[in-house]
Predict the structure.
Amino acid sequence: MALHGGIDLGGTKIQAVVVDEDHSVLGSARRPTPTSGGPADVVKEMEVALRDAAKAAEVEPAALAGVGVGSPGVIGDGSVSGAGNLPGWEGTFAVAPTLEAALGCQVRVDNDVQVATDAEFKLGAGRIYSSLLGVFWGTGVGGGLILDGRAWTGLGGAGEIGHMVVKMGGARCTCGRVGCMEAYAGRAAMERHARKLQQEGRKTDLFKLMEQRERTRLTSGIWTRALDNGDEMATDIIDRAVRALGAGIASACNLLDVEGVIIGGGLGIRLGHPYAKRIAAEMLPHLFADSRPPHVHVAALGDLGGAIGAALLLERDREPAASG
Ligand SMILES: [Zn+2]
């Protein structure tokens, strides 16, 4: 039986899985993404995570039929360039050859958000649809597209829903532009906004919670705890994020008219169904075809979706080319 490995390389964590031919997870492992060093250090941690997952699945990495990697940044020929959320990764690093040499099996690399969208389409909440939009609400806001049963990657840069403009001349985004959805809804942007409001004298327990949990950033767990505690500032910032998501996702739906929208990502999964419903409600005033709005779901594969999707990359070799 052919076993595949999958690695989801994120800004905060590296998730690895080993799956069988039915996509059942036989072993998984998670490691924090290095915050210093460079691409070689990050890839070393990816190797360790995959080895741990393989150990849990009781298989040698070299015995795997292959390993897929979902990565941020620009992907080309097994290399990753300009992954801004990863330490020292402004240039290009040959991820696939490095991992192949370390693990002793073939390695494929593709965009992290697209592989997670593919996984939801093939195995998760999107199975019932032939067109869908994946929205990954985490550190940033990523998007993946399936149109007419196929991944749509454009010329390589499609799906960047986080940079849909929801306010002309609005808040500064990490991409350098202004008014992007991510500048209101991304976890990193919300944290910057929270710090600014606190400096201006507004009260919040967000940063106290962060210290108590010995974290260096406002994780999804800290946001949800603050919301549960009724923290007024946290509630305001999340409400603003939900409104931005509603406007941005509805605009994308006006253009593409997809059947379903899948909400994933660290915050999306942590906040879950009640927030998917809230996003759907915030979309409604902006939807042109508002008599039949798209269905909005939470990603069914949860935290492991990205890694499972990465493992599916090896299967793509056996199908007609679906994406670039
Ligand atoms: Zn932007």
In short: The longest strand covers residues 25-32. Residues 163, 173, 175, 177, 180, 182 surround zinc ion (CB under 6 Å).
